[in-house]
Specification:
Length: about 290
């Protein structure tokens, strides 16, 4: 028997079979894409399901990234002296003179307090007024405070406004830290504004230590269906309106020193905030 010819014959059959299977697979993929449900139909279905639980969708559906990776982070270890020096525009040696104990720093015009690793608060004395009078429109005034933060805040370039609440006399403006290009909904910078003047600031800060390989995530419409399923399982049925949908990160697994951030869809409603894990579709309840 000529084993060389037999070997060539088997190899030829193997290659031909592979070519046939690849062609069949591509044809199947093409057929599936033809019959895939359009996003508009998926959205209409999601809205009808949510309506069963008295939930109305009043938010725009954002464009969804196709992949995001989990992040490993730890608390920002920058000390209070260096934070105060950065905000005051002085050298750390100058700020060191104002230290009062292990967790406080009494600087001209402000009292700094360390709340824990990567977390601090500032109380301004007297309250800070903008160099020019705030606009009459609240959002324009918020933009002015954002400009102030860029000049006087700590690491403020890495924060993005989430929203504001309150009235004319007292307002809270909230920012989220940005990591790997997306907001971290569980890491905040908050401004307390009273009668147009900044009275206090609190801030949490994280440091990225590792970005894991990107994985496919569900889109916003699929996240809405996950929310509807959650409402069904929990028996929640009350008038509610989804006001805003954003994609970003939230803490899933925490330890005393570092933890994992998972991609999530944040859904702000008139009754609270829901987080939908963008990898698994699991739903949780968050804070405003």
């Amino acid at each position: 028997m000529n084993f060389s010819r037999v070997k060539i014959l088997f190899l030829t059959i193997f290659l031909a079979l592979n070519a046939f299977l690849i062609a069949q697979w591509m044809d199947l993929q093409s057929s599936v894409s033809v019959y895939a449900q359009p996003v508009s139909d998926q959205l209409a279905h999601a809205q009808s399901v949510l309506a069963m639980y008295h939930v109305r969708l009043a938010a725009e559906i954002p464009v969804s990234p196709t992949q995001m990776g989990q992040l490993r982070v730890q608390r920002d270890g920058t000390g209070l002296v260096n934070v105060a020096a950065a905000m005051l525009g002085v050298k750390p040696a100058e700020a060191q003179k104002w230290r009062r104990g292990a967790t406080h720093l009494d600087a001209p015009g402000a009292l700094y307090a360390e709340l824990g690793p990567g977390s601090f608060a500032v109380r301004f004395r007297p309250p800070v007024a903008l160099q020019r009078a705030p606009f009459s429109r609240p959002h324009a005034a918020t933009e002015d405070w954002h400009t102030w933060l860029q000049k006087h805040g700590y690491n403020a370039d890495n924060y993005q406004e989430l929203g504001s609440s309150g009235g004319d006399h007292r307002e809270t403006v909230t920012y989220d830290q940005i990591l790997a290009g997306y907001p971290v909904f569980t890491t905040r910078l908050t401004l307390q504004i009273e009668r147009g003047k900044l009275t206090a600031l609190s801030q949490q800060s994280l440091v990225l230590t590792n970005a894991y390989a990107p994985r496919p995530i569900i889109n916003a419409v699929s996240a809405l269906l996950s929310l509807a399923d959650f409402l069904d399982k929990t028996g929640v049925s009350a008038d509610n309106t989804i006001q805003n949908i954003r994609v970003g990160y939230a803490a899933l697994l925490t330890t005393p020193t570092q933890w994992i951030l998972a991609p999530v869809w944040r859904m702000q409603t008139t009754r609270g905030v829901f987080f939908v894990n963008a990898l698994s579709g699991e739903v949780g309840v968050g804070s405003q």
